[in-house]
């Protein structure tokens, strides 16, 4: 059987996959808005281990004016609110929202943390104490200046926020940023100038709302938006339980409930980017989740890490540290920052195929400087690796094509007796050493590569807005002019013309095969152009190999006759 026939199962799976995802988005069951806690933290707060205070998740708190402090590096622009010392905005300066064009040479950068109501996402931290003064993420801090910038030649920049209680307890919250890094270090320094011991805990939490419903101008834009299918929600990691995702609709049903974890992290994920709090590797932190409410009634989802109890004697000093990652999902960097952090590049069940494909593409990109060219080279490498297997497929198909007159004779002999007809065909194939299943073997390679590459193109930030040539400005997005899907359809039609319908195929299946090119054209309209590019080049390689095999097979009888 030819390549088109071997793709039949693949096409049906792809269509089913798209229809299922679309149905889930539009008509799938959605849980009701959960019962949420009030701002005072009565129901949405977690008891601190070793003490009795609670951590309020809302924004109500100490009165007084706050101000915004801007911190700029070569890759990040952070906005810190002196209320709580929370980071309320983070702009990723090397990742624009839209591709750079002549009309828009300086597009706005991606904003990961955001203090707007519709996209609220903040990185909060603080201290709590059962019986002593402690600044949580609602306390008012003081800053020496409102703007900090990493100067040329400077690699490290410290930003200090201070808080002082009349009892003598002083806290300095120090953020440290580094050149070329998306990691922000936080050190909460406690100076106990009071007359009694200070006992409490430090915490770090991420709080955000669910993403607003996207607005599309047309159906094609809607179904081709790959960000709709990626995971958007919370995640956490522990050495024992490994990587875990916590969707927002599971916060009430399956909460992360005060788990003692050493060497883990908590995060909020979205397509391409994430924010993650990483406690010290040897610290036994308590992870938990909560749902809280604001005045507008929109739920906010919180995932937090709470430190072990901290005790500071009068006149003594203590520090609590953590790291905050605010940036892209780069596999080359995440694993080095914290164990398991690279798992946030979520390739799902096909990770075993997607990760090697991504690694090969990354190495090829280092040579070519173009992800599209790297995809073409990947096609060539895979075709070289599977050359013999594909040859066996074409040889089997060619032998079956030559047996068509004898198969037609068997049909006339046995008429409507399909059982005897099948037995006679199997005997004929066995006698002529033809394996009808040989054409199905490449399918075992084709389907994993298809889905693996699909996840790589959908979730790899390196391919986000990666241009190819001409009209392809983003390999992770659909072809805007449908050129590649049309090219692939043409290739499939030529394959059908070169390799006629195989003997033994019933009329219904023959009609299906004729309809296949149109089916693929519709499917590939919505897929990333990089994926369609892969299959256009792969189809051309198969077509050339198919033509060469048929020509060689036809040349053998001609030589024998001469």
TrEMBL record:
Residues 69-360 form the Membrane insertase YidC N-terminal domain. It is found in: Cell inner membrane; Cell membrane. Gene3D superfamilies: 2.70.98.90. It is a multi-pass membrane protein. Interacts with the Sec translocase complex via SecD. Specifically interacts with transmembrane segments of nascent integral membrane proteins during membrane integration. Keywords: Cell membrane, Chaperone, Membrane, Protein transport, Signal, Transmembrane, Transmembrane helix, Transport. Residues 35-51 have a biased composition (Low complexity). The keyword Cell inner membrane does not apply. PANTHER family: CYTOCHROME C OXIDASE ASSEMBLY PROTEIN COX18, MITOCHONDRIAL, OXA1. Residues 1-21 form the signal peptide. The gene is yidC. The chain crosses the membrane at residues 371-391, 434-457, 477-494, 515-537. It comes from Dyella nitratireducens. It comes from the Bacteria. This is Membrane protein insertase YidC. InterPro entries: Membr_insert_YidC, Membr_insert_YidC_N, YidC/ALB3/OXA1/COX18, YidC/Oxa/ALB_C, YidC_ALB_C, YidC_periplasmic_sf. The lineage of its organism: Bacteria, Pseudomonadati, Pseudomonadota, Gammaproteobacteria, Lysobacterales. Belongs to the OXA1/ALB3/YidC family. Type 1 subfamily. Required for the insertion and/or proper folding and/or complex formation of integral membrane proteins into the membrane. Involved in integration of membrane proteins that insert both dependently and independently of the Sec translocase complex, as well as at least some lipoproteins. Aids folding of multispanning membrane proteins. Residues 371-551 form the Membrane insertase YidC/Oxa/ALB C-terminal domain. Residues 30-59 are annotated as: Disordered.
């Amino acid at each position: 059987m030819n390549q088109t026939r071997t793709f039949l199962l693949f096409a049906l799976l792809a269509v089913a996959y798209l229809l299922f995802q679309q149905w889930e988005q539009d008509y799938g069951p959605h849980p009701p808005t959960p019962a949420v806690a009030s701002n005072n933290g009565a129901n949405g707060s977690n008891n601190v281990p070793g003490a009795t205070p609670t951590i309020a998740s809302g924004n109500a708190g100490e009165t007084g004016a706050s101000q915004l402090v801007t911190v700029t590096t070569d890759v990040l622009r952070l906005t810190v609110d002196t209320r709580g010392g929370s980071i309320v905005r983070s702009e990723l300066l090397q990742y624009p929202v839209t591709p750079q064009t002549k009309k828009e040479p300086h597009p706005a950068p991606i904003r990961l943390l955001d203090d707007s109501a519709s996209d609220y996402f903040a990185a909060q931290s603080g201290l709590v104490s059962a019986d002593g003064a402690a600044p949580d993420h609602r306390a008012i801090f003081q800053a020496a200046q409102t703007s900090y910038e990493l100067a040329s030649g400077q690699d490290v920049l410290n930003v200090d926020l201070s808080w002082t209680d009349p009892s003598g307890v002083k806290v300095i919250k120090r953020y440290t940023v580094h050149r070329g890094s998306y990691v922000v270090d936080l050190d909460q320094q406690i100076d106990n100038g009071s007359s009694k011991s200070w006992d409490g805990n430090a915490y770090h939490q991420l709080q955000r709302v669910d993403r607003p419903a996207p607005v599309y101008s047309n159906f094609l834009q809607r179904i081709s938006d790959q960000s709709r299918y990626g995971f958007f929600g919370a995640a956490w990691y522990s050495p024992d339980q490994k990587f875990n995702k916590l969707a927002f609709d599971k916060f009430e049903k399956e909460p992360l409930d005060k788990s003692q974890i050493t060497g883990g992290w908590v995060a909020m994920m979205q397509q391409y980017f994430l924010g993650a709090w990483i406690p010290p590797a040897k610290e036994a932190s308590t992870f938990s989740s909560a749902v809280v409410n604001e005045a507008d009634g929109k739920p906010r989802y919180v995932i937090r890490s709470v430190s072990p109890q901290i005790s500071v004697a009068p006149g003594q000093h203590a520090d609590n540290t953590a790291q905050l990652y605010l940036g892209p999902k780069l596999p080359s960097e995440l694993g080095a920052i914290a164990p398991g952090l690279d798992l946030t590049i979520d390739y799902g069940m096909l990770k075993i195929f997607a990760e090697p494909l991504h690694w090969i593409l990354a190495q090829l990109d280092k040579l070519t400087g173009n992800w599209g060219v790297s995809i073409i080279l990947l096609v060539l490498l895979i075709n070289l690796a599977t050359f013999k297997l594909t040859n066996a497929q074409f040889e089997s198909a060619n032998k079956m094509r030559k047996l068509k007159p004898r198969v037609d004779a068997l049909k006339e002999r046995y008429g409507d007796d399909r059982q005897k007809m099948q037995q006679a065909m199997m005997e004929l194939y066995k006698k002529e050493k033809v394996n009808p299943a040989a054409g199905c073997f490449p399918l075992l390679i084709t389907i994993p590569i298809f889905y693996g590459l699909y996840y790589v193109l959908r979730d790899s930030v390196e391919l986000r807005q990666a241009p190819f040539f001409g009209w392809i400005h983003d390999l992770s997005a659909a072809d805007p002019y449908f050129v590649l899907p049309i090219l692939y359809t043409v290739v499939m039609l030529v394959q059908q013309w070169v390799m006629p319908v195989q003997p033994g195929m019933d009329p219904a299946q023959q009609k299906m095969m004729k309809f296949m090119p149109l089916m693929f054209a519709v499917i590939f309209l919505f897929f990333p152009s990089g994926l369609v590019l892969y299959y256009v080049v792969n189809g051309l390689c198969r077509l050339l190999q198919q033509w060469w095999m048929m020509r060689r097979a036809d040349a053998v009888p001609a030589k024998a006759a001469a």
